[in-house]
Design goal:
This protein is α/β, with parallel strands linked by helices. The chain has 18 helices and 18 strands. The longest helix has 25 residues. The radius of gyration is 34 Å and the shape is flat.
């Protein structure tokens, strides 16, 4: 081998962290070779030999303590008991997630500490200490050898050791493993690339990496490193963490200014999104879980005290009708949808005018000045007249807290109208799609080449989310809320839903009547000599109302009050405890004994 070749080989070894070494000894090379082989073997199987190593260290410590400090055995017993208690109480912080793992660690601590204390006092060779160490060590080693996480860690270590050969086979020469972490579902490695390579080169070789690692298709995730362009994260899943649906739990939020929980990512972190002053688009094929994601969002919005929700469901109300008690309006026909959007634009203009008069640049939602969210199921079914209003809302609605939330199968330019509605969607939630080009339709041009592979999602509710706080492709699964959960949530929050102040002309939101029915023109504001009489008629109507309450539309006819005045009077009665809101838009007196109408 020439000098030039030797230098080249030395540089190659140096890049892989190997430094040349010269060993000078006697003429025989056999002892050094045997020592190197033994050391390499011990290091390779260090996980399997961990119980033996622990037994040897315990025996050595017992011999030293018996020789120097044989009276320390009470302290050793105390240390063993405290260590076992700490493992049981705080073991989860050290990675011992399961209770069985914490119990096993505590048992090992008690056995090793007890044996060490006894051997310190009596000597490690005193009978039957050697025999008990042998028997106890073997019995306690069986769970260690059989533990799935230890075996997985060994497989990962051997895979990472072979990474240089794997990288060469897939065309990522020069890449190396910087660190790796093993969890319950697989492992995650932080990788460094050769100069000139980027994460885009890795994403393009994703299938080849899965083949080289011997995993199932779709088991490898590639994520860019936000700090460096020549680094990336590679996650390999041996078990799908989202194989089963994730049960829904009522979110602890009270304002649209708080992030809304949608589900969980594969690393168990929460998938949340902020909808205030952002329009959102949900896309996916039939059966991918769009309605489930909508239900999760609606469940969170109904819990917010500063949001009014309008719904459009052109499938006759099949999807949104269970929420009707919590919705301020629900349109189920093209005509109703157009009228709803027209009223939303009027509300938008009113808010813009009011904000301009007060010099406010943005509308801050409160219970008396709530945000308005318009939820549209199957946006592609909207008539052309409605999409024109929707385009205006998409362009101008953010500053005044009028938000558009649209769900559709394929958000093509034709389906979304010919305006800029789709381009104004800051939040994109993509469920399973059939074709690769649909990924770019939902998430934006170039999303597929950047690693957003929604066509590989394999279960309803699995999704990718693109938002300012979610710039990289991370798979998540939405919470599963049952029909009973929808009904219970709508009933729970229907009584305390806010209203537009002043309310925009809208139908009485009575679920027993046709949604979005026109209600005519509200009576004029009462004159100064009318209030006492109007208030008396209001209290009399509330006092005589049936158990199911009396509707707002009926109260307007009886009292002659305008809708804003009526809502104000009702709010005063409710705050004073004289009146209860039975359900959305229906009120009655709190009790027969109440006779003061205020």
């Amino acid at each position: 081998m020439s000098t030039r070749q030797l230098r080249r080989q030395a540089r190659k070894m140096s890049r892989h962290g190997i430094q040349p070494m010269m060993v000078i000894n006697s003429d025989s090379q056999v002892p050094d070779m045997i020592g190197v082989l033994i050391a390499r073997w011990v290091w390779r199987y260090r996980s399997e030999l961990a119980p033996l190593n622990l037994a040897c260290l315990t025996s050595l410590a017992a011999w030293l303590l018996h020789t120097t400090h044989p009276g320390w055995w009470p302290e050793l017993v105390g240390v063993a008991v405290v260590t076992a208690a700490m493992l049981l109480r705080f073991g989860h912080r050290a990675g011992l997630v399961r209770r069985s793992e914490r119990l096993y660690a505590a048992l090992v601590a008690v056995f090793a500490g007890g044996w060490l204390a006894t051997a310190t006092s009596a000597g490690p060779t005193s009978r039957p200490l050697p025999q008990s160490l042998l028997v106890g060590g073997v019995l306690l080693s069986v769970p260690w050898w059989a533990h799935r996480r230890r075996r997985a860690r060994v497989r990962v270590e051997r895979t990472l050791t072979a990474w240089p050969e794997i990288a060469e086979s897939v065309g990522l020469n020069g890449s190396r493993v910087m660190s790796a972490v093993v969890d319950a579902w697989g492992w995650t490695a932080r990788m460094a690339l050769r100069r000139g390579h980027t994460v885009a080169d890795v994403i393009g070789k994703l299938s080849a990496i899965e083949s080289a690692l011997g995993t199932r298709p779709g088991a490898v995730r590639i994520e860019p490193d936000a700090a460096r362009a020549d680094h990336f994260l590679m996650r390999v899943l041996h078990t799908d963490p989202h194989a089963r649906p994730v049960p829904w739990r009522a979110p602890d939020i009270h304002s649209i200014a708080q992030p809304i929980p949608l589900g969980v990512f594969e690393d168990a972190s929460p998938a949340t999104v902020l909808l205030l002053r952002r329009h959102a688009l949900i896309g996916g094929v039939v059966g991918s879980g769009k309605s489930g994601v909508l239900n999760v969002i609606l469940a969170a919005l109904t819990a917010c005290e500063d949001v009014v929700i309008w719904g459009i469901d052109l499938k006759g109300g099949m999807e949104l009708r269970p929420w009707v008690r919590a919705l301020d309006r629900l349109a189920t026909t093209p005509e109703q949808a157009t009228r709803l959007f027209r009223d939303a634009v009027a509300e938008l203009d009113r808010r813009a005018t009011e904000s301009g008069h007060h010099g406010a640049r943005v509308w801050e939602p409160t219970r008396r000045r709530p945000a308005l969210v318009i939820v549209v199921d199957e946006y592609a079914e909207l008539p052309e007249a409605a999409t024109a209003y929707a385009d205006s809302i998409a362009r101008r609605g953010r500053a005044v807290a009028v938000t558009l939330l649209a769900a559709t199968q394929r958000p093509t330019q034709k389906a979304m109208g010919h305006g800029a509605t789709r381009s104004q969607m800051d939040v994109r939630i993509c469920l399973r799609v059939r074709e690769r080009r649909d990924v770019d339709l939902i998430l934006g041009q170039g999303a597929f080449n950047a690693g957003w592979h929604a066509h590989t999602l394999d279960a309803p509710g699995k999704f990718l989310i693109s938002a300012p706080e979610h710039p990289t492709a991370k798979r998540a699964r939405a919470y599963l809320i049952t029909d009973q959960g929808v009904t219970a949530t709508a009933d729970r929050y229907a009584v305390h839903r806010p209203v537009l102040n002043p309310p925009h002309p809208a139908p009485d939101p009575n679920p027993d009547q046709t949604p979005d029915k026109p209600n005519g023109t509200a009576p004029a504001e009462p004159t100064p000599e009318q209030p006492a009489t109007s208030k008396g008629r209001l209290w009399e109507a509330l006092h005589d109302a049936p158990e199911g309450g009396i509707s707002v539309a009926r109260l307007i006819k009886i009292t002659g009050m305008s809708r804003p005045t009526l809502y104000r009077r009702l709010a005063e009665h409710v705050d004073a405890g004289r009146v209860v809101q039975v359900r959305r838009g229906r009120y009655r007196a709190a009790s027969p004994e109440s006779d003061d109408g205020g």
